[in-house]
Amino acid sequence: MLCLNFIPLIVLLLGASLGNAFPSDALKKTCSLSKYWFLVPRELEALRKMQQQFDDIMQLSNRKCHTLLFHRRKSLETAELSVPDRLMLVEAELDFAITMLGFPAPARFAETRRRPLAFLTQAREDLQDCIHIEAPSHQPSRKLRHQLQKLEKARKTETTGCLEATAIFHLFQILNDLQCVAHRDQCT
């Protein structure tokens, strides 16, 4: 009877020692973007609310912005890029939007954009995991490099207000690109 009491203790000790033999970071992560196939309505509503509030602010400030940062010619549709290129493009777009939403704002607008900012940050982290798993040594194509250079040039030459407006007004285009990457389809 006394031997039976030692069995759970032995199993527990063996389990702990075997668990240490295989570190958790040695297990391969998987790339799953399926949660972005269909966006949660409350996230979409938070984004719409933020866009509407920003639009109201823009009308009051009467700022003009004419950047063509998210305007793509037919020769550079997201669907024409390879999957690793698309992952990198959407990551760059999300990074741009997160940076613009991270700038100081009036208290009311800062509160409105908190939820969209958290959602976009999580999406970027998920994309980064996928890039590291699926294409760790991928070199961007010429088309992707051109788009990334265009983004970098805009960051250096446009005003912060203009870039912020561009990011907020094009959030749904960025989300569409994210959904296309999640589906791995040829979205346009």
From TrEMBL:
Q: Which Pfam families match?
A: IL28A (PF15177)
Q: Where in the cell is it found?
A: Secreted
Q: What GO molecular function terms would the record report? A: cytokine activity
Q: What is its main location?
A: secreted
Keywords for this entry? Answer: Antiviral defense, Cytokine, Secreted, Signal
Does the record's keyword annotation contain Transmembrane? no
Q: Name one GO biological process term.
A: positive regulation of immune response
Spans traversing the lipid bilayer: none
Q: Name one GO cellular component term.
A: extracellular space
* Signal peptide (UniProt feature, chain positions): 1-21
For this chain, the family text in UniProt reads: Belongs to the lambda interferon family.
In terms of PANTHER family, this protein maps to:
INTERFERON LAMBDA-2-RELATED, INTERLEUKIN-28 AND 29
Q: What is this protein called?
A: IFNL3 protein
What is the organism field in this record? Answer: Psilopogon haemacephalus (coppersmith barbet)
